[in-house]
Inverse folding.
């Protein structure tokens, strides 16, 4: 008896995980080292200036992710549905409008930066000067960010996760080199810290160009108005979770800066800046693990592969929670050593650090769980749940709990961090129970169950002739379970056998045969069988490279046979898989 296993999905997740973690780690490390260099060479007051810029940084991230995550998520699902036109429109919408929105907002903020900085620093002139000095060169990083990391999102979907991660790594390595040179040797102060970020992303543009102009990529640019007309709303909806997360971050940072300055002064603001940087650094694990499964889950959702989605999310949770445990132990037991890296081992900050860092350490596990669930709900079109979780955890609950604990005792206001994520998870659980009563869904992941007249069944086999013949026989024997008539049963059995044998023929002597996931989606109107294998690139619907066109399409050849027994046949390379879909 052949059954389904998760080996192909788990292997693909690991393939995407390492580049995703490298990419997010590069971003997080650059932000962290920024603070370390500024703290060592310029002092705690300069770190506070960087922290005061957090609302602007969060707003820029919100616009960037609204279009990059939104368009790439819609495109990934469209590819899983074999809707290439929609995928191209999503890609074009993200590229055109993301860049234009980023550039417009940057120019506006650049013009009004001095006035806004003075207003947000509550009369602290030194803080306002430091804030504006860092912010003005930094703002131009956002158009560069979209050209590089925005396009890298589509490179990941197109089966190039390694190259996408290299773009982030190179951009942030260049950033760190310029950071050190500008701050230490050229004495540019925090202006150098902001300028180095912009130059880092600008330098990575050259790595995007080969893919952008490649004729083999899966995405093509279409007319801007044609693209936006049909998918713009869907792109905004898919990107709303990340957008509102960072909009909430803007509001949160303004409120927290005000509260921390009121209760703990500028020393507290310096500690808060480092705490936020440490949370951002943990995203190398939390966001790295979650972002790795977005393109995979999107494609699986389009193909109605519920089993694959569950296994992919399980893999992400295992990785993310394991990493969060490590972060928790390090920060909890070595809080003073970590603080010394930022120059916070003296003065008023030294008394604040131990309590702040230990409460933050407790938060990591809950941050990890929240991040994975948000990414899952957003990718599976549960945008309202994902957005609500973002706003609750990152603004509403966080600000409320910090204010509450500050009223009790200012030194324990840091307990608001773990409390906000715990409260968010509890609220989400209650809401999920409510949805389960209203809709026909499966478990905590809220995956839509198939309708009563639809059967979804899947198996995994090795691409060998023995497995092909065995599965073909199993399909014939289980025709009644699959609710198939004799003609359709024979056609599907023959197709499965031929597909597996063709894949087996591509295996070289001594190589391990690839695995094939076969998904049956059967209803009264259409019977669809999807084949997904992790072997070498091979299109079974085109002529075999070892044969002439006439030999491939003569009666009796595998290619001719598949096309003759199926109502429709489609092949694509999705996420590096050979994916063939036959309809009967």
């Amino acid at each position: 008896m052949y059954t389904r296993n998760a080996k192909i999905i788990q292997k693909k997740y690991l393939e995407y995980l390492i580049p995703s973690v490298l990419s997010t780690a590069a971003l997080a490390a650059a932000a962290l080292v920024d603070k370390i260099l500024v703290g060592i060479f310029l002092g705690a007051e300069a770190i506070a200036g960087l922290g005061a810029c957090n609302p602007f940084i969060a707003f820029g991230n919100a616009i960037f992710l609204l279009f990059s995550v939104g368009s790439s998520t819609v495109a990934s699902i469209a590819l899983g549905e074999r809707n290439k036109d929609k995928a191209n429109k999503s890609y074009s919408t993200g590229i055109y409008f993301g860049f234009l929105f980023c550039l417009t907002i940057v120019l506006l903020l650049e013009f009004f930066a001095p006035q806004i900085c003075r207003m947000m620093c509550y009369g602290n002139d030194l803080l306002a000067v430091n804030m504006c000095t860092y912010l003005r060169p930094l703002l131009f990083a956002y158009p560069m960010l979209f050209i590089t990391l925005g396009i890298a999102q589509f490179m990941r979907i197109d089966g190039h996760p390694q190259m996408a991660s290299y773009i982030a790594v190179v951009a942030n390595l260049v950033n760190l080199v310029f950071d050190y040179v500008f701050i230490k040797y050229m004495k540019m102060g925090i202006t150098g810290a902001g300028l180095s970020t912009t130059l880092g992303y600008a330098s990575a543009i050259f790595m995007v160009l080969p893919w952008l102009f490649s004729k083999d990529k899966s995405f093509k640019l279409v007319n801007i108005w044609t693209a936006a007309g049909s998918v713009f709303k869907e792109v905004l909806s898919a990107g709303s979770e990340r957008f509102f997360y960072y909009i909430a971050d803007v509001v949160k940072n303004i409120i927290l800066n005000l509260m921390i300055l009121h209760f703990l002064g500028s020393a507290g603001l310096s500690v808060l800046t480092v705490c936020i940087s440490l949370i951002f650094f943990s995203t190398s694990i939390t966001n790295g693990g979650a972002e790795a499964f977005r393109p995979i889950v999107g494609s699986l959702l389009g193909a109605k592969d519920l089993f694959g989605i569950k296994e992919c999310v399980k893999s992400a949770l295992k990785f993310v929670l394991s990493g969060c445990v490590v972060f928790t132990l390090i920060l909890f037991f070595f809080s003073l050593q970590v603080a010394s890296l930022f120059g916070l081992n003296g003065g008023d900050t030294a008394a604040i650090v131990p309590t702040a860092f230990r409460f933050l350490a407790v938060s990591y596990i809950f941050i990890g769980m929240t991040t994975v669930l948000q990414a899952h709900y957003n990718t599976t079109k549960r945008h309202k749940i994902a957005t609500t979780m973002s706003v609750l955890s990152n603004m509403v609950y966080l600000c409320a709990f910090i204010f509450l604990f500050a009223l009790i005792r200012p030194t324990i206001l840091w307990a608001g961090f773990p409390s906000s994520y715990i409260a968010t998870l509890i609220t989400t659980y209650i809401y999920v129970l409510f949805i389960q009563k209203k809709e026909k869904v499966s478990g905590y992941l809220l995956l839509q169950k198939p309708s009563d007249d639809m059967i979804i069944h899947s198996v995994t086999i090795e691409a060998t002739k023995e497995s092909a013949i065995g599965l073909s026989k199993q399909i014939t024997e289980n025709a009644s379970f699959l609710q198939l008539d004799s003609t359709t049963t024979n056609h599907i059995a023959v197709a499965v056998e031929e597909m597996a044998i063709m894949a087996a023929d591509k295996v070289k002597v001594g190589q391990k045969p690839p695995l094939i996931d076969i998904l049956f989606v059967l209803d009264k109107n259409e019977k669809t069988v999807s084949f997904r294998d992790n072997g070498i690139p091979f299109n079974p619907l085109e002529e075999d490279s070892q044969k002439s066109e006439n030999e491939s399409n003569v009666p009796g050849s595998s290619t001719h046979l598949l096309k003759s027994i199926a109502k429709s046949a489609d092949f694509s390379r999705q996420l590096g898989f050979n994916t063939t879909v036959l309809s009967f």
DSSP finds 20 helices and seven strands in the chain. Strands lie at 441-442, 447-448, 455-462, 515-522, 527-533, 568-574, 577-583. The radius of gyration is 26 Å. The chain has two domains: 7-442, 455-583.
